[in-house]
Amino acid sequence: MNIFELLKNLKGIEHMAEEIKKELREKRETLSKGGITITFNGLGEVLEINTEKDSPFSEVKESLIELINQAQEISRDLLKET
Fold it and tell me: pLDDT 10s digit of each residue in the chain, 82 long?
């Protein structure tokens, strides 16, 4: 394989990677726990966080940490599926 074929293949791979990123960015998942709802995309980007008014701060903080960790795990799973 010559250098020009390698460059052409690399360009194709880069295009495929960008398409996969675009698909993952458009996927949405939502998790709820302890009065907190978090929405994120397939890249693990947190898009929205909502809390119930009557949630105590200590529970909110712990739940938020758990939800973010779950969001990251789901994002990694979405990446594996693609």
Answer: 688 888 888 888 889 999 999 999 999 999 998 788 889 999 888 888 888 777 676 667 778 878 888 998 898 888 888 7
Phi/psi for 81 (5° steps) reads: -70, -30
Length of the chain: 82
The torsion defined by the Cα of 32, 38, 18 and 82, in degrees rounded to 10, comes to -10
- pTM across the whole model: 0.66
Tokens 């675009």 label which residue?
22
Quote the tokens at residue 6. 């390698």
Say how far apart CA 20 and CA 35 lie, in whole Å.
33
With contact defined as beta carbons under 8 Å apart, do 67 and 38 qualify? Answer: yes
Distance CA 25, CA 6 (A): 28
